[in-house]
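Example for tutorial group B:
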């Protein structure tokens, strides 16, 4: 067995012969690779590489370029937070404090109710702990020793966690100064390494996520290796707050969610204008890719959902009702309805591939605490499609779907990465079917030359899938599109076609949605564009601003002409100063503002301004009108 094993950034390991020291092992790596090494396994113990390993070595110390490094740094920051809280409120009891995406948190049980002002006090104490540069050391205990130790500290939550572990479990703890915490690690070498951190908010959290348990106080924070990275991240959060689709949705008059229907959004006229443009674009692309559009009912009987498997795998998320003493469900997904459309007639192999697309309204029960604007709702429209095909068409059809996704995302300037999600624990069907479906998805994405990563166990219960994570203008990622290959539902519904041999066969089925949810995609685009949508999408494309009352008639004539050609236009005929009207139109993020006064009325021109402040000057109205019609039609 090797004395030293270096764990590389991609998760692979490089082993060294017995007797090799850690320093010698690192010297054998290239300098660029060594700087990215996350950890080393030395004689069975995981060691963090966080500082200079060898005197005279070119290797300085770990940089946190890799997520694993940031995760370790933030995990240590959570311990520093806990230590600071215990110094300030010694009676506080600690629950759990993991690193999470973009930060960390710690759940705490204490009599004192934390306020935002307390975060400043805790941060100052954390800074003192960082300056003390306390070494972080690992120790192990038996299960019983650990129980007795944390009982002596009155840390009831730690004791409960340990008691849930097996009798023979070896418990690891990490100490920094006089503070010791139950933890699996790893951590950086000392508290002094955590130099850029920020506490962000306070929230309530039930112990172990169970509402029957006590409500604890959760402190959220984040940490980075460098102060510049922290400042850039906090700036991004400020920008994200300005772009919050809930805030912009209200300001721009796009949608509203009423207390009479939590999780059920109302789209207002301007929101519908935006939504209709997206649907028009969706229909054009699907026409180009030779899909036929269908619509299926939103309520279907229990037997259908039992056949599909949703009744057994998804029942807790479904709304149900009784009709004529029979149980029905509001559809949470569109696929069973698409299968019923397929079954409406017997198909021949000559009919394939069959591509059915549907903008299908679905309902899913979400807990009230999970609802979030348009991002998490209870009623939404999936841009679904179901492709029925022959086995030898599987590769080409998957590649066509991948092309369609790229066509749609590129329209909005959205980059993306792809995950191949594999068989979950609650999957239907045998392993052979799953392996064949997974391999087909892998072959298709590789044939298109698109990089992907494996997401183990996150497939749908009826088949593996490719999940698309799009990146917005702030660098945030959102899981939107999904391509699911299904050999199970055709079997469960016993759908058939007549093959070339005159015998009946089972088709293969693709489920796919590109926007994912129309509502959620609108929310994402609202934040991506900060409400300043491209002209073709904008709820109001032109705002005409008459300088005075005597110019209103000319403005309304222009508006009527544009309205007849489906340009979305408004006239601001209020008795306000022109500077105020321009500022208001800018705040409403209207792409074009047309200022009209005496000169414009006399010459048949308009003075054109663009959102953002660019003044394009005076042009003949017909010239502007023709240009904007082309811009809208071509979706520039």
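The residue assignment follows.
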């Amino acid at each position: 067995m090797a004395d030293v094993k270096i764990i590389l950034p991609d998760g692979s390991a490089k082993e060294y012969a017995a007797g090799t020291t850690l320093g010698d092992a690192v010297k054998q790596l290239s300098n660029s690779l060594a700087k990215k090494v996350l950890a080393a396994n030395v004689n069975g113990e995981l060691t963090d590489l966080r500082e200079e390993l060898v005197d005279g070595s070119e290797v300085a110390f770990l940089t946190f370029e890799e997520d694993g490094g940031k995760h370790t740094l933030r995990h240590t920051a959570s311990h520093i937070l806990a230590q600071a809280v215990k110094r300030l409120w010694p009676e506080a009891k600690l629950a759990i404090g993991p690193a999470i995406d973009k930060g960390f948190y710690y759940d705490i049980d204490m009599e004192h109710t934390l306020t935002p002002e307390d975060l400043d006090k805790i941060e100052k104490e954390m800074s003192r702990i960082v300056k003390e540069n306390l070494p972080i050391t690992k120790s192990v205990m038996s299960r019983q020793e650990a129980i007795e130790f944390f009982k002596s500290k009155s840390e009831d939550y730690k004791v409960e966690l340990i008691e849930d572990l097996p009798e023979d479990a070896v418990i690891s703890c990490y100490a920094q100064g006089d503070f010791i915490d139950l933890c699996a690690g790893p951590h950086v070498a000392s508290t002094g390494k955590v130099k850029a951190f920020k506490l962000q908010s306070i929230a309530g959290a039930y112990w172990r996520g169970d509402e029957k348990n006590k409500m604890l106080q959760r402190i959220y924070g984040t940490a980075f290796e460098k102060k510049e990275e922290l400042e850039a991240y906090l700036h991004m959060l400020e920008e994200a707050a300005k772009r919050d689709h809930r805030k912009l949705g209200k300001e721009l008059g796009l949608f509203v969610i009423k207390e009479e229907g939590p999780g059920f959004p109302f789209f207002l006229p301007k929101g519908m204008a935006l939504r209709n443009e997206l649907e028009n674009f969706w229909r054009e692309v699907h026409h180009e890719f030779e899909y036929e559009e269908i619509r299926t009912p939103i309520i279907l009987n229990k037997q259908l959902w039992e056949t599909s498997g949703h009744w057994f795998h998804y029942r807790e998320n479904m709304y149900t009702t009784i009709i004529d003493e029979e149980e029905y469900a509001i559809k949470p997904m569109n696929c069973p309805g698409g299968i019923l459309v397929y079954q409406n007639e017997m198909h021949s192999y000559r009919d394939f591939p069959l591509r059915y697309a549907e903008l299908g309204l679905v309902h899913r029960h979400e807990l009230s605490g999970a609802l979030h604007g348009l991002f998490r709702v209870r009623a939404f429209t999936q841009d679904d499609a179901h492709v029925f095909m022959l086995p030898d068409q599987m590769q080409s059809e998957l590649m066509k779907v991948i092309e369609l996704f790229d066509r749609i995302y590129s329209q909005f300037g959205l980059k993306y990465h792809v995950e191949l999600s594999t068989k979950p624990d609650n999957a239907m069907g045998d392993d052979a079917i799953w392996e064949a479906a997974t391999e087909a998805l892998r072959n298709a994405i590789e044939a298109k030359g698109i990089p992907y990563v494996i997401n183990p166990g996150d497939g749908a219960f009826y088949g593996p899938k490719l999940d698309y994570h799009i990146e917005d203008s702030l660098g945030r990622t959102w899981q939107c599109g999904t391509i699911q290959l299904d050999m199970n539902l055709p079997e469960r519904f016993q759908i058939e076609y007549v093959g070339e041999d005159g015998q009946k066969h089972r088709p293969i089925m693709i489920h796919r949605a590109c926007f994912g949810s129309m509502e959620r995609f609108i929310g994402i685009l609202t934040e991506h564009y900060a409400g300043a949508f491209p002209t073709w999408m904008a709820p109001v494309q032109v705002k005409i601003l008459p300088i005075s009352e005597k110019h209103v008639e000319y403005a309304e004539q222009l508006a009527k002409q544009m309205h007849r050609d489906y340009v979305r236009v408004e006239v601001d005929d209020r008795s306000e100063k022109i500077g105020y009207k321009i500022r208001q139109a800018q705040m409403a993020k209207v792409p074009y503002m047309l200022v009209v006064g005496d000169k414009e009325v006399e010459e048949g021109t308009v003075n054109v301004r663009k959102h953002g402040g660019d003044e394009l000057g005076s042009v003949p109205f017909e010239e502007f009108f023709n240009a904007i019609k082309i811009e809208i039609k071509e979706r520039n």
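The two ends are 62 Å apart (CA to CA). Compare this with the pattern of hydrophobic and polar residues in the output above.
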